Structure formats: C-alpha cells, structure tokens
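chain below, 73 aa
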Amino acid sequence: MMYFVAIIERILVEELARWFRDNIWKLYKLLESVMSDREPQFAVKLAKELNRSLGIEIRLLTSFHSQSDRQTE
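prediction:
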C-alpha cells in the first residue's frame, strides 16, 4: 500500500512526523520505505523525528566496538 502526500506549503520535519504518526502509524506501524523529492537529509531527519516521537531509542554500534555484543543499560 502507498500513500502520497502532496504538501503545497513549507512543512517542518516535526510537523510531517506528527502527521504520519497520527494518520499512518496508528493503522500500519513501521515504514517499509520512504520516497521523497527532497534532499536525502530530509528523509534521515524524518526517520529520526519519527523514532523520537514514537519513543524508539536508536543505539548505533560499530563492529570495532568491543561492547557491541553486550546490552548496555
């Protein structure tokens, strides 16, 4: 299923994330993909804002980090 959102005014990432949470998230949960005609940084900011507003904590680890295999508190 796809949703196309036409936005004719400038919109902040926070406003779009709020719109997504209120209209799409409650029906379908996580995104499979995001397509945007804006710069790639916009999609990254949107994902970060969605995670923040949904209470999802992102923990990025690298393979060079010795604590990657252990859960941190």
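Residues 13-54 form one domain. The radius of gyration is 15 Å.
thats it, cya
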